[in-house]
Amino acid sequence: MLALPSYSAVADTRGTLTVTVVCDRPNERAILRLDAPLARPVSGGDLLMPLTNARNQTVMVRLMGGSLWQRGTPLQGSGVVSLPVLAEANQWNGLGYFSATITLSLQPTASGSTALNPASFASDPLNFANPLPAGSQNESLP
Predict the structure, then answer these.
(1) What's the domain count of the chain?
(2) What does each C-alpha distance from 20 to 45, 79, 83, 124 come to in angstroms?
């Protein structure tokens, strides 16, 4: 789930990408990987990713520590993992829906099944003009 308030270019906007992982056994191990084709590594292990609207205008977001998820984050047992998201101020690039495609995959490192819960995200893009409704799930990063 992506929780990110409405973006305003006058101030940074912070949010969180949260993933619930459900394993069959408490000690089961897996690797969580993030694939964001347009994201590029920047200092501090972050990923910088462009979000684009229908008019091809771009807003950049920083996935704080995202390079760890891109390389693969080891997990053990069920739980919740979170990744801070930052849309920095002074990006004056229009209003509307901005989106980017990301894929999260979970690969077991031992026998048994491991699954992301929810297994897939809704396809609604994030609307920078309005806050994301509480409890919504989003495939597009902010």
Answers:
(1) 1
(2) 22, 6, 12, 19
Q: Among 104, 91, 89, 94, which residue's Cα sits nearest to residue 140?
A: 104
Does pTM top 0.90 for this prediction? no
Alpha carbons 112 and 49: distance in angstroms, whole number: 34
Interatomic CA distance for residues 83 and 74, integer angstroms:
14
Residues 6+ positions from 46 with CB-CB distance below 8 Å: 62, 63, 64, 65, 66, 67
Judged against a pLDDT cut of 60, whether residue 49 lies above it is answered with yes
pLDDT in tens, 63-92: 999 998 899 888 888 888 888 999 999 988
Q: Which domain holds residue 70?
A: 2-119
